[in-house]
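Check this.
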Amino acid sequence: MNQDTYQDVIQTIRHLIDDRQLNEAQRLLDQELRMPYIPPEVEGILRQLDAYVKAQQTPAPRASVLTPSQILAYLNGDEEHQLAAVVALSALNLRAQLPLIREAFEVLSTRILKSLLVNVCIEQALTEEFSFTDQGITYTFIPAALTAPQECEGYGAAKTILIDWLENDNPSLLMLAMQQLDHTVLLKLPEPVDTDEALDLVLEVLKPIYIQLADASQWQQFLTEKGLAHPLSTH
């Protein structure tokens, strides 16, 4: 399957979600995720959409109106229930739920779920200190002191580079790269993305997509065209 086909599939799923045709979106997601090979970056997007659709289909009580005790039960469930718990937390006044937030950071099973919760705490500008551990590294932060990932200067600079490089020549690749950029900066929370990191962030996002949908030699040719092949050949 080429990149245009992946773009079409992702767009179709997003349209189904927007139209609240969640069963059809789930059917298409299940079909795509059963394929014997999916480029990792495309699979990441599909799994994000899959998690979102499953959260929207969570049986009653609805994830968005779970009580704190129900949220705690969901936090100790599987990844789908944990995602529903994070969604439910976003609907609460978290200043009144500090022990629950700390418990969530302790038990959430994946970095993406922990980063989603960090983002929820940023949105509510919590002034308390929180921490979580991922892959042996402990992150300590105050949400009110952080910037939402898509408001970071580095994110804006990376987005500008991607648009400049791809908008005219390869809009399909640009769409996949922008979706992966959103995912990547979210995963970096609570660490900020500074402007001087923008180029490295673009290459981190773009290289694996480009190689999966083209090949390594074309990636090197692309770097050469951008004047980057020699100084950044290790990226």
Confidence is low (pLDDT under 50) at residues 230-235. The two ends are 26 Å apart (CA to CA).
